[in-house]
Design brief:
The complex is a heterodimer of chains A (112) and B (114). Chain A is mainly β and 112 residues long. Helix content of chain A is 0%, strand content 50%. In chain A, a hairpin with a 5-residue loop joins strand 4 and strand 5. The relative contact order of chain B is 0.34.
Chain lengths: 112, 114
């Protein structure tokens, strides 16, 4: 089945550690996105990428980094510079930017 | 810049009653509009979308939405609520030109009372 796979589903890290969230898609989509979800705040865009080896900052990029070395993969690193990293992270992809996005099942990150 | 406003962070309806979730958008160019549903601890699933053409759009699970350009609205409706409709619903907008990612509203949590 085609889709988007995020792993792991739950992730626990100690404060001050970097952590990388995985996102893989087999839909042959060009565009990929990372959103952060907090209660009552909806989805906020962290980073997005329209093509391989290119990505842009979203609204809340500080403390995060990404790479897009392969079309199907768009990993997100939450660095120690992110002041409040505990959240639900959603990866999505679309055929081209602005068209309907397909979402993964999310990764819930808890930093203690 | 585009934006989405969803009126009411929480809506409660009785089973069998009409569901109406409100969405207003702001966009300086013709928009694409979307409604997504999210169940607890899961990703978002597309309910329906408006791109071009007919302004009344039908989606999955009996939901529909009408694009009203004059009111900059894209409200989501369902004639008769079912318990399984209890979830969080997100409205989203993007530019028809494809230059921007989807921008989401803050969501509306729908409760269905038996």
């Amino acid at each position: 089945d085609g889709g988007i796979t995020q792993s792991p589903k739950y992730l626990f890290r100690k404060e001050g550690q970097n952590v990388t969230l995985s996102c893989e898609q087999n839909l042959n989509h060009d565009a990929m996105y990372w959103y952060r979800q907090d209660p009552g705040q909806g989805l906020r865009l962290i980073y997005y990428s329209q093509i391989v080896n290119d990505f842009q900052k979203g609204d809340i990029a500080e403390g995060y980094s990404v790479s897009r070395e392969k079309k199907e993969s768009f990993p997100l690193t939450v660095t120690s510079a992110q002041k409040n990293p505990t959240a639900f992270y959603l990866c999505a992809s679309s055929r081209i930017q602005g068209t309907e996005a397909f979402f993964g099942q999310g990764t819930r990150l808890t930093v203690v | 810049a585009q934006s989405v406003t969803q009126l009411g962070s929480h809506v409660s309806v009785s089973e069998g009653a009409l569901v109406l979730l409100r969405c207003n958008y702001s966009s300086s160019v013709p928009p694409y509009l979307f409604w997504y549903v999210q169940y607890p601890n899961q990703g978002l699933q597309l309910l329906l979308k408006y791109t071009t053409g007919a302004t009344l759009v039908k989606g999955i699970n009996g939901f529909e939405a009408e694009f009203k350009k004059s009111e900059t609205s894209f409200h989501l409706t369902k004639p008769s609520a079912h318990r399984s409709d209890a979830a969080e619903y997100f409205c989203a907008v993007s530019e028809m030109s494809g230059n921007t990612p989807l921008v989401f509203g803050k969501g509306t949590r729908l409760s269905v009372i038996a």
